Each structure stands twice: as C-alpha cells, then as structure tokens.
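Example 3.2
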Amino acid sequence: MSSLTDLREVVDVVIGVDTHVHTHSAAAVDTGTGGVLGKVTVEATTEGYTRLVAFADEHAVLRAWAIEGTGGHGAGLARHLAGGEELVVELDRPQRAQRRNGAKSDPLDAIRAAREALARPRLGTPRHGGDRQALSVLLAARRSAVESATDAQRQLFSLLIAAPEPIRARFRGQKLPGMLTTAVGLRVHSSWDVETTTTVTVLRSLARRARTLVQEATEHEKAILAIVRSWRPDLLAESGVGPIVAATVLCAWSHPGRIHSEAAFAMLAGVAPIPATSGQVTTRHRLNRYGDRQLNRALHTIVLSRQRYDQATRDYTDRRTTEGKTPREIKRCLKRYVARDLYRLLEHHPNTA
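Structure, written as tokens:
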C-alpha cells in the first residue's frame, strides 16, 4: 500500500465515507469519470457496516474505501472492513477552505472524501490496532492521571497559602512531597471552627486524590513498558528514549509502510523545516507548528536528554553554537536528525518484517 500512488490503477470505484458518532454517510464515485454512482447513510453499528458493504457490492468488486477519522468515529468501520480484507485509505478531516463555496453536508463530505483520495499523490493506511491501540489507550489514561494529579497538587499548594496559621505552621519549610504526606495524615478536631475544619478536610481529600492518581499513572507506565518491551525493545536501547517516549513514537508510526519516507515522518512530527525566504534572504526557516504534537514533544524530550547525557550531541551543540546558531535552532536541527534515525530504525529493523 505504501507504493500505491493512484487508486485509478487498481480499483473501479472509491467509496468515500464521512463518519460521525451515530451515523456514517457514504458515496460511491467512479474512478474513471469522477461521477457519483450512489449515496447512502447508515447507523454506526455492525448492522450499519454490513449495509455499507452491501451498498459497495452493488457498484463494484474492485473498490477502495476512503474514510475520515479511522482512529476516531470511523474506527469501528475501519476494523470491520479490515476483517473483510477491504482496501482502506485514511483521510484527514476536511478544512473549510477546501469546501467548494462553503457547501457542507454529510453526503457532500463523503463525495469529497472519495474524490480527494483519487487526487492524492500518496495514500495513507489506517493505524493498526493490537499493541498500538493498547499503547494509545494507556498513554491517554496516563496523561489524564498525571494532569489531574498535578492539578490536585497545585490546588493543595494554593489553599495552603490562605489557610489558617495553625494549619500553615504544620507545612512550613516542606517541599511538595512532604506537604502531600502531611496533608494525608491531617485529622479534624472538634474544637476547630468551620473554616479550619473545612480547609483541613479539603487538603486531606486533595492529597489523597493526588496520591491515588500518581499511583494510577505509575501502573499505566508499567503496562506501557511491558508492551514496548515485547513489541519493539530496540527503541528502549536508543539514547533518551524511555517507555513513554517509545510508546508515543510507536503510536504515531503504527506499522511498516504506513509512512512512506523519513521526510513524511518528520512532517508528521512537526520537525520538517518550513522555508521562510524572501528577497536576498534564502536560508531562513519558520517554526513548524503542524503535525502530531505528542510526537513532537517526544522528540523534544529525546533531544533534551541527549544534550545533557550524550557526548556526541553535546559536541554537535557546541559546534553549532560557535557557528552562531541559537539554542532553539540547534534543537530544531537535532529533532530532525532524531526523526530520521527513529524512522530508519522503525522501518528497517528485522522485527518489523
């Protein structure tokens, strides 16, 4: 699929699908003429998916599916079609500027999806399930737990600032971990006024919540590490790559051939340089704010780690600094190099065959 560049070479009809929570709209488009052969809207259920396949059977045996949101609203349909060994093309959600005259409806978006698949020079396949999807779920759960624990700790610290003096005195001079331990052990006394009693009760609740969430995040990380070790342990051997970074990279990459080149992987990660030249200035580039920001963050973490602990990266940083590059420019260059190395490792490691 990674070498396929034109659907018209292999299929007679493209079924474009606009996916939503409760319904999916599909349109069959002839690859030779671009004409619409038929349209249908079904419920986003197993019975609805079966109806879509029957709809496709009415128009062509040689067909491909162009689906928007294969990792979201279209995930169930994508899995159903994969079970039937159907050819599925992954599409992004449409931008408003690309809609002709602002026209918008589910059938129109389905037609647009099919025609866009026909016009694309490169075709993407949906991300795999299995280990990749398990990592995606664990990463989302861990991220939520970490963010919620941080919020609880921040709230505890803020409440302590305005707490009654007898309560503040018990926390004075402590770092945040010590504050959490002290807050967990707080006890309410019957002689306290309502303000003190309420403050102590809330502080204890926040501390217990933070501890529970930290423990939950740790359990998720252990599960992530187990999956990464069984799937791609070679990633963990790379400098600066821990279980969370490795899982993030694997979720974005998914499987061999999905991303057709290292340049495409760099673009996905938002580390491909964007030219910003004008007149006689021909060497300037703009910060790339596109792509998968979680993947970009993972590459940034690798670069920061290597700049601190990897001698070759430290030497490179020193050399580029003497050449007049700023720290931000150096990090951008390093992230591009890391993206290249990770892509080559992921695509060509014997375990991916």
